[in-house]
Design goal:
The chain is mostly beta strands. The protein contains 3 helices and 9 strands. The termini are far apart.
């Protein structure tokens, strides 16, 4: 893709094998470049359509010295259609909160070196809000701060199982205060 920035739609057409290669070669995101933004998101696995979570949004903010984030449910539809927040765009429901930290070799969350860990276990979520999820995030292209590839895992004790890919792309400014 020389000369052209990749997009969410470009990555959504790739195979898991191609996404794995991009993820492996991805750059560690700078959390400061995520803060203050909401990103439109797309879950790659087919079963997410059945569950009604194919499309979503993620937002990022800073609280004290820490980085945090949340999810926004989206009305589902084809990838070509706009992302419309539930219940309404100007006042969306924010849920599924998570901490945002760099993966360190000696840390408790070290499954994907060079990634950021979005830890829903730190967000005081109910199980249906994803308290068992651990997302690992990498920047797709070193010169594009707008596109990220993630790998979601289910946490069962220290085990991380059932990885699946998701893509997020910068969409709009996030609110200055969250929660």
């Amino acid at each position: 893709m020389k000369g052209k920035k990749r997009t969410l739609e470009d990555l959504a057409r790739l195979s898991n094998q191609e996404l794995e290669e991009i993820f492996r070669n991805g750059k560690t995101p700078d959390p400061e470049k995520l803060v203050g933004w909401e990103f439109r998101g797309y879950n790659v696995p087919f079963f997410t359509k059945i569950l009604g979570i194919k499309k979503f949004k993620k937002g990022f903010y800073k609280k004290g010295d820490g980085y945090w984030g949340y999810n926004v449910p989206i009305y589902q539809g084809p990838i070509e259609e706009p992302w419309r927040c539930q219940p309404v765009d100007h006042n969306p429901r924010r849920m599924g909160f998570y901490s945002v930290k760099k993966v360190t070799p000696d840390g408790p969350e070290k499954k994907e070196p060079g990634a950021l860990i979005l830890n829903y276990g730190d967000g005081k979520n109910w199980p249906w809000e994803g308290s068992f999820l651990r997302d690992y995030l990498k920047q797709v292209d070193p010169n594009n701060d707008d596109l990220y590839l993630g790998k979601a895992y289910t946490a069962i004790g220290p085990a991380r199982i059932l990885p699946s890919f998701f893509i997020i792309e910068r969409d709009r400014k996030a609110p200055t205060e969250v929660e």
